[in-house]
Amino acid sequence: xxxxxxxxxxxxxxxxxxxxxxxxxxxxxxxxxxxxxxxxxxxxxxxxxxxxxxxxxxxxxxxxxxxxxxxxxxxxxxxxxxxxxxxxxxxxxxxxxxxxxxxxxxxxxxxxxxxxxxxxxxxxxxxxxxxxxxxxxxxxxxxxxxxxxxxxxxxxxxxxxxxxxxxxxxxxxxxxxxxxxxxxxxxxxxxxxxxxxxxxxxxxxxxxxxxxxxxxxxxxxxxxxxxxxxxxxxxxxxxxxxxxxxxxxxxxxxxxxxxxxxxxxxxxxxxxxxxxxxxxxxxxxxxxxxxxxxxxxxxxxxxxxxxxxxxxxxxxxxxxxxxxxxxxxxxxxxxxxxxxxxxxxxxxxxxxxxxxxxxxxxxxxxxxxxxxxxxxxxxxx
Amino acid sequence: xxxxxxxxxxxxxxxxxxxxxxxxxxxxxxxxxxxxxxxxxxxxxxxxxxxxxxxxxxxxxxxxxxxxxxxxxxxxxxxxxxxxxxxxxxxxxxxxxxxxxxxxxxxxxxxxxxxxxxxxxxxxxxxxxxxxxxxxxxxxxxxxxxxxxxxxxxxxxxxxxxxxxxxxxxxxxxxxxxxxxxxxxxxxxxxxxxxxxxxxxxxxxxxxxxxxxxxxxxxxxxxxxxxxxxxxxxxxxxxxxxxxxxxxxxxxxxxxxxxxxxxxxxxxxxxxxxxxxxxxxxxxxxxxxxxxxxxxxxxxxxxxxxxxxxxxxxxxxxxxxxxxxxxxxxxxxxxxxxxxxxxxxxxxxxxxxxxxxxxxxxxxxxxxx
Lengths: 381, 369
Prior knowledge:
Radius of gyration of chain A: 20 Å
Helix content of chain A: 25-40%
Structural class of chain B: mainly alpha
Shape of chain A: globular
Strand content of chain B: under 5%
CATH topology of the largest domain in chain A: Rossmann fold
Strand order of the largest sheet of chain A: 2-1-3-4-7-13
Number of domains of chain A: 2
CATH architecture of the largest domain in chain A: 3-Layer(aba) Sandwich
Helix content of chain B: over 70%
Number of strands of chain B: 0
Shape of chain B: globular
Low-confidence stretches of chain B: none
Mean pLDDT of chain A: 81
Number of domains of chain B: 2
CATH class of the largest domain in chain A: Alpha Beta
Largest sheet of chain B: none
Oligomer: heterodimer
Distance between the termini of chain B: 26 Å
Order of helices and strands of chain A: HEHEHEHEEEEHEHEHEHEHEHEEH
Largest interface: A-B, 53 and 50 residues
Number of helices of chain A: 11
């Protein structure tokens, strides 16, 4: 029963794991490295409208409390990506840090944050499940700054102002990245049928991926049908850990004529890659899979690499790095910072060189239009 | 006090002592192998655990664990392996959050409605498994597992979107319950005896509820006719039936009572912490409760000690990581080791007791002859 408990907890962890960015250093994104060069400027919140000053000189050595969500370092996903960001910050700014994760069922988030706050100048909480606890702990620790990944940390009940002067929310425009891989999918589909596998539906986040992807596909060709399918519905988070079910769904999609399938399903993606390999080898014509969060060409097992057309990148490492950078520069600002295409907070990978130069040019064209605001990507299907 | 009484007491104390010693020994080996300083680790755990704030953490954690353990133990006492506490409390917590956010009542009544809803839903869901057992002979292990899946994967998953407060929020949940439906914390009471509780810690008011449930459980099981019937049905169902205990009714009542208690497991979250059901609602307490019930031998005081021990270990996980001593998994290893060793040691002690019993009976028979 301990094991079952672990599995359930793992399910909960999936809530956060889902949309993540591979932290492997070798999984270098192909978009030009944004972290060290661009200050994040896109913001929603009035308080955060000034881009953080880009002084690189660390004032004095600070301590950062990196608080992972369940799973911690080594999940090849969300948490590892955050870890990669802090590792880079250690080298660049000479900070020190302590990292910790909550109990398997997430019961001690608040206590953990408090302990981290006791010894840190900046506490980075990885995952929106920290939202409520950060608000209460931050109120008791006004000398410490808090940054939460994947939550806007704005008080929408009171006019979307930051909860407090020491809380920042770091979110990503997943729909924009998904739009671009949707373009790639449409350009590589011959059957005019494309699949989308969502890990867990019903809590809003994965629908963002679906909406952006579908919009991207239809921007290229409105006649293409996108078949969306979710593995489980919240609060059942098994969908992020069910490679077997993802594989079945993918095979069924290929049966229905799909020749490109995009997944936003965390660990379940492995099932999609296997299905793409199996179907390609059986039928002799290649079908494509599209990865998510990290450059899955590098994180997936080697024998399925050649079926991964591209991956939608979500740069959690950039968000963590930038948050630490502004803290060391003394320019921490409260409120929501959105990591979108304009700061390369999301993007796509070209590892494997499956995308032709012409296709990449078209994707870059769409990217420019999204950044310029001439295309608005929907966030709900 | 004669020798055999002494021996009995020694045996009773031996089990938990040996379990603790062996568990600490194994944990030390694991710590050393994984490159941590075991002495320093245990020292830090103790130092941290004796701080007032950490004690509050321990009790807050022990409260739902204890309720889950009692819920499971009610069935266990009758040899009913009710492993549906998990689904029962999640469904009950969800229903209570929804009802609590919909009604507006003066303070105590609002809280009472929330608690009643939770107990009712837990009892109904568990009662379903009981009904299946007495009418169709469905094994309760199978039915409660299935009902867990249905509760979480179908009912809560299907119904939650209808009651979502803010569809744009990342962490979607039910609307927050009005303040009249919050249970006051016990800080004021605790601070009569201690210094002020700092660091934003609050001892959940559900703690009192857990104590009351524990007392009721203890009295009913040990001091009432019904409790006797329960224990008799568990020890020897055939003899109990021959003695006039209606087996079907007992199964139903035990399942319903267990479910009602299970409904309370999620109450610290609903009444004290979040005041809503959201994606962070703690899952897995039902299974953790079974472990606590096993460790506490299904007795009220035993489970209380076990729940506090598990609560202490869980609350140590944070300090071990922040002070870079060990990873949080060490705590899970310790809990599993304690449980495993305890079960084995209890079994050994039981055999020794039985052998003593047989020998004593033989001696008495000899003396009588």
